[in-house]
Design a protein that fits this description.
The protein is built from nine helices and twelve strands. By secondary structure, the chain is an alpha+beta fold. The protein has three domains: 81 residues, PAS domain (Beta-Lactamase), CATH 3.30.450.20; 71 residues, Helix Hairpins (Orthogonal Bundle); 164 residues, Heat Shock Protein 90. Strands 6, 7, 8, 9, 10, 11 and 12 form a seven-stranded mixed β-sheet that branches. Strands 2-1-5-4-3 form a five-stranded antiparallel β-sheet, with helices on both faces. Bound molecules: adenosine-5'-diphosphate. Adenosine-5'-diphosphate (ADP) binds next to helix 7 and helix 9. Adenosine-5'-diphosphate binds next to helix 7 and helix 9.
Length: 392
C-alpha cells in the first residue's frame, strides 16, 4: 500500500512539474505576444503620423503651385481643390464659366478620356486659362493653368519680329531701287544724289541695327552692374556725346548746377545710354535755336533726372505709347530726323533694370519733359571718383 501511495505521490508531483513548465512557457509566449503587439502598435502609430505629415506637406505644396488643382471622386464630386482652384469657386460670371468647363471636362475624364480646353475670359483683367483633365484610378484630376502672361509675351515677340523685318526691309528695298536707278543714270549730278541717298539708307539701317543690339544687350542684362555712378558725371558724359549733333542743330544744352555728391547705383553704360537717348530726342524734336535743360532733383531715396525741351511736344493720346518699340508719333518726322523708334524703349528698359521708372509730361507745341527716376542712396559723403572724371 505504501508503495502505491508513493507512486501516486510521484505521479502527482511529475504532473505538477509538467503543468508548471507549461505555465511558464505560456507566460513567456504571452509576454512575447504582448511585446510584439506593442511594437506593432508603435509602428502603425509612427506610420500614421508619417502619413499625416506627408499629407500635410502635399497639401501645402499643392497650395503653393500657381496652377489650380481639383480632384473628383468616382461619382464626379469634387473632393479636393487647392488654393488657386478655390478662387474660381465664387459666383462671379467669369469664374462660373471656369467652374462649368471644369465640370464638363472632369465628366469626360471620368469616362476615361483625358481632355484639355482653352478659355478666354474677357475680364477685366483679360485672361487665358488652359484646363487639362486626367482620369485617375478612382476619380479624375483637373489642372487650371493661367497662360495669359505667356500668350502676351508670345504675341509681343511675334510683333517684334514682324516690326524688325519691316524696319529693315524698308531701307533695303529703297537701296535696291536707288542702286537699280543708279546703274541706268548717265547724269553725274543725278548719280551723285542717288548715291548719297543710298548712303543715307545704309546709315539708317546701321542705326536701327545698332539700337537693336543695345536693346537686346540691355534686355539680357536683367541684373546690371551695381557700381556707384556719380549722376552729374553720367549726365556730363551723355551731354558730351550729344554735343556735336546739338551744335549742328543749333540747340543749346543747359545742365542746372548738379550736386556732385548725388550717386546712383547701377550700370554706368546703361544710365549714360538712357540719358543720351532722352537728350537725342530733345534735340531731334526741337526747332533750331531752342534750349534743352537738364536738372537733377534728389527726393529722399530717389533721384529724378529731368530732360526738358521746348520743342514740338507729344499729343496726349500718344504719351502712353511712345515707350513701345518702333512706336513713332510722326513717322515722317522720325524718319527725317534719323529716328529708329527704339530710343525710348531703351530708356524704359534701363529704368526697369535699375528698379526705377521713366515718365513724360508734354504739351503739343510747347515741349516735353522726360524724367528718369532712379533709386539713389541719398547724398554720398564725397563724389566717387569716376574713370571719366568729367563734370558739366
Ligand atoms: P525715335 O528714334 O523715332 O525718336 P523714340 O523711341 O526715341 O524713337 O521715340 C518714339 C517717338 O516719341 C518719336 O518717334 C517721337 O515721335 C516721340 N518723341 C520722343 N521724344 C520726344 C520729344 N522730346 N519731343 C517730341 N516727341 C518725342
Amino acid at each position: 500500500m505504501p508503495v502505491v501511495i508513493a507512486v501516486v505521490v510521484l505521479a502527482v508531483a511529475a504532473l505538477v512539474i509538467v503543468l508548471l513548465r507549461q505555465a511558464t512557457r505560456l507566460r513567456a509566449a504571452l509576454a512575447e505576444t504582448k511585446a510584439a503587439a506593442a511594437a506593432e502598435l508603435a509602428r502603425s502609430d509612427h506610420e500614421r503620423s508619417s502619413a499625416e505629415e506627408l499629407r500635410t506637406r502635399l497639401l501645402r505644396a499643392l497650395d503653393a503651385i500657381p496652377q489650380g488643382v481639383l480632384i473628383a471622386d468616382a461619382h464626379g464630386k469634387v473632393v479636393y481643390r487647392n488654393r488657386v482652384a478655390e478662387s474660381f469657386a465664387d459666383a462671379r460670371h467669369s469664374d462660373a464659366l471656369v467652374e462649368a468647363a471644369v465640370g464638363e471636362l472632369l465628366d469626360e475624364a471620368l469616362a476615361g478620356t483625358p481632355t484639355d480646353r482653352t478659355i478666354d475670359l474677357f475680364g477685366p483683367p483679360r485672361r487665358t486659362l488652359v484646363i487639362t483633365t486626367q482620369p485617375l484610378a478612382d476619380g479624375a484630376l483637373a489642372v487650371i493653368d493661367d497662360v495669359s502672361e505667356r500668350r502676351r509675351l508670345d504675341a509681343t515677340r511675334r510683333d517684334f519680329v514682324a516690326n524688325i523685318s519691316h524696319e529693315l526691309k524698308t531701307p533695303v528695298g529703297a537701296m535696291g531701287l536707288l542702286a537699280e536707278t543708279l546703274t541706268l543714270e548717265d547724269d553725274p549730278a543725278v548719280a551723285r544724289r542717288l548715291a548719297e541717298r543710298i548712303v543715307d539708307e545704309a546709315f539708317r539701317m546701321d542705326r536701327t541695327i545698332e539700337d537693336l543690339l543695345v536693346l537686346s544687350r540691355i534686355e539680357s542684362e536683367e541684373a546690371p552692374a551695381h557700381e556707384p555712378v556719380v549722376a552729374s558725371v553720367a549726365v556730363a558724359e551723355a551731354v558730351e556725346r550729344i554735343r556735336p549733333g546739338a551744335d549742328q542743330a543749333g540747340i543749346t544744352i543747359e545742365v542746372a548746377d548738379p550736386d556732385p555728391r548725388l550717386v546712383v547705383f547701377g550700370d554706368r553704360r546703361q544710365i549714360v545710354s538712357a540719358l543720351y537717348n532722352l537728350l537725342d530726342n530733345a534735340v531731334k524734336y526741337s526747332d533750331p535755336g531752342a534750349v534743352v535743360e537738364v536738372r537733377l532733383r534728389p527726393d529722399g531715396t530717389r533721384l529724378a533726372i529731368e530732360v526738358e525741351d521746348h520743342g514740338f511736344g507729344i499729343p496726349k493720346g500718344d504719351l502712353e505709347r511712345v515707350f513701345e518699340r518702333f512706336y513713332r508719333v510722326d513717322q515722317a518726322r522720325s524718319r527725317s530726323t534719323g529716328g529708329t523708334g527704339l530710343g525710348l524703349a531703351i530708356v524704359r528698359h534701363v529704368a526697369t533694370n535699375h528698379a526705377g521708372e521713366v515718365t513724360v509730361e508734354s504739351r503739343l507745341g510747347e515741349g516735353s519733359t522726360f524724367t528718369l527716376n532712379l533709386p539713389c542712396d541719398a547724398l554720398a559723403p564725397a563724389a566717387v571718383p569716376s574713370p571719366h572724371g568729367a563734370s558739366s
